[in-house]
Amino acid sequence: MEVEIAPLAELPDGRGLRVEVNDERIALFRIGDSVHAIGDRCSHAEASLAEGEVFDGEVECPRHGSPFDLTTGEPGSLPATTAVPVYPTAVRDGIVYLTIEGES
Ligand code: FES
Fold it and tell me: Is the CB of 80 under 6 A from ligand 1?
């Protein structure tokens, strides 16, 4: 189902924002006019990826430093070895939407 998240203008550019949708913690990252959404729990030890630093299309886990690709959710180096989920997003009329599995 598609869920309305927030106006694009309310998302910080170049930083993460943690939201909860259907009891799932999701980290949103606005890069200019586009928005990426990945699972917020690092696949290594569950740190909040929304609190990581963003650069070159990746977010660096704030706890042990594994970088996660914002498009694929794949970790680029140890200690994380497993991808985090990726959620489709859309921006229409300045509003950010996210698609997540579940009942509407
Ligand atoms: S908790 Fe993210 S790399 Fe360890």
Answer: yes
